[in-house]
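Hi support team,

I submitted a single chain yesterday and got back a structure, but I'm not sure I'm reading the token output correctly. Could someone confirm the output below corresponds to the sequence I sent? I've pasted both exactly as they appear in my results page.

Thanks,
R.
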Amino acid sequence: MVSKNQIKLITSLQQKKFRKEHQLFFAEGKKVIQELIHSDFFLENLFSTTAVFPEVNPKKILPVSESELKKISALTTPNDCLAVFRMPEAKSINETGLIVALDDIRDPGNLGTIIRLCDWFGISELVCSEETVDIYNPKVVQATMGSIARVNVTYVNLEKFISETTLPVFGTFMDGDNIYKSDLPKEGIIVMGNEANGISSQIEKTVNHRIAIPRFGNLQQTESLNVATATAIILSEFKRG
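Hi R., thanks for writing in. Yes, this is the structure output for that exact sequence:
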């Protein structure tokens, strides 16, 4: 049975200020939870209706009813389990290979998908501006489908970080060079911009390689690609060579 205090704590974790205060976040769904359990994340408690987790200490598992789970879930239709994890300590950024940098990404689904893409393409470092949506937002955690366990996500003053790097910096712009005709290196920082406004003027000044995904439609009236879709195309091209 879930206590009133537990309900209050878990529902409060839907807000960033309380996640930061308690240094806790939660994940929902068997796949995501198992991925996190088998990683370096520390499990506080697991609330489950039917799912079986033989690898978890039984003392940490609290059986709950579907109605109880609905009280603590952030989903309209809850899964059969929810787990509370402790936030890990921040790791230093490994400035080798390819790094994806996000300039003010606001949509949780986009961030979660980009984390999955980094995991898929073997990008271990994702650097986010301080304005980018919080990685521990429940919708972000859900969208990562467990890839949050394998990608080091760091929040920094992005302008300062990029201006101090020795790596080449690539930014996506409508007037950039055709990515399909560009010589792309094995190392560098790939900057992806805000959903509505693209890369900010401050970050644009730090970019030394402007690239673009060309439009092939006859009318060429589509203004832009979804940022996660664009990230997938760009990472595929960087990894293809």
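A quick pointer for reading it: The CA atoms of residues 32 and 138 lie 11 Å apart. Let us know if anything else looks off.

Best,
Support desk
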